[in-house]
Amino acid sequence: MTEVLPSIPGQQVTGSTLYELRRLVGELARTGRPAFPGSQPVSFTRTHTIPELLNEDYFVCEKSDGVRVLILMVLTPNGPQTYFITRKNEYYLAPYTCFPVPNNERFDQFHHKTLIDGELVIDTEPDGRQVRKLLGFDVLCVSGTSCMERTLESRLGYLNDHIIRPFNRMCRRVSPDYARNIPIIAEMKSFQRSYGVPLLYNEVIPKLKHKSDGLIFTSVSAPYSPGTCQKIIKWKPAGENSIDFKLRVIQDPIPQIILMVWHGENKYVDYGSMAMRNEDWLSKFSLIPDLDGRIAEVVYDPKYSPPALWRFMRFRDDKPHGNHVSVVDRIIESIQDNLELDELNQYMPQIRDNWKRRHA
């Protein structure tokens, strides 16, 4: 089944306003550049990651299957404004969405120069309704003051106390008509200490109303780091490992979809063929216009249509490029040097004992 990603609420920003917002975000994130400054995880490997978890404090949360966004909050002459920033570095002005500062029961003072990190997911309620939810999991800046050098525990406290909790209090207190127009609900991601993987899988993940496809381990002591961060580690079961490639269609003589890997700038190199059966082309891909050049997420499935290894999962039109070749190499290494969940759980007692020993 093809998974549907949540849409970004609001109107896309262009022109000089977009330029100024990108400049401001580069300033708040301390990159000095207008590019998307969100941190990106590396893939889990047994060789590198297990020693990290044994010797350093990490928090762990479930990996939601959604759309990554940064959220910028600013005050303007037109009032408070909230922008959702995609990995394509697109900015969307969200309607009816503003985040009040804490300890403001009149809800007439709002965040300015605040930048947080999160993910949009679609929650499916028991009655079938679909709800767009923002899951907050980090913060870069609050009211113009950087939080990036703080510990993860401190950053999560700021995120909850200064942003998520006041927002939810406001949503409960405003008129029902106004609340219905707010395009998101918001909550914190559930973080556990690194040895809490069994708790996540036994208690947290079964209660989720959206799809989860793995775990994210984040160092407690490491600062927030824009770009690829070695201290944020993504674990997926072997059957869930996926890569984003750019597609190219050829007829040789039967149709094939070539997966191309990104080498930086605008350079792509052929990587291999996508796993595809004859009926896949006839019933699905032949009917899709403009297939060439789209970004697709493919999942590792060597049994689907050998010798090809990667089966189509969904398009990722939210991403400007496929995964960089260095990321692809790390994912391949992860597949070859990975742990299944039961193996990972076997390390939990030792990880817990080492954690408690460090804090004794």
UniProtKB/TrEMBL annotation:
Keywords: GTP-binding, mRNA capping, mRNA processing, Nucleotide-binding, Nucleotidyltransferase, Nucleus, Transferase. SUPFAM superfamilies: DNA ligase/mRNA capping enzyme, catalytic domain, Nucleic acid-binding proteins. One of its GO terms (molecular function) is GTP binding. It is found in: Nucleus. It catalyses: a 5'-end diphospho-ribonucleoside in mRNA + GTP + H(+) = a 5'-end (5'-triphosphoguanosine)-ribonucleoside in mRNA + diphosphate. Residues 240-344 form the mRNA capping enzyme C-terminal domain. It is an enzyme of class 2 (transferase). Residues 40-236 form the mRNA capping enzyme adenylation domain. Its EC number is 2.7.7.50. It comes from the Eukaryota. GO terms for cellular component: nucleus. GO terms for biological process: 7-methylguanosine mRNA capping. PANTHER family: MRNA-CAPPING ENZYME (PTHR10367:SF17). This is mRNA guanylyltransferase. It comes from Coemansia reversa (strain ATCC 12441 / NRRL 1564).
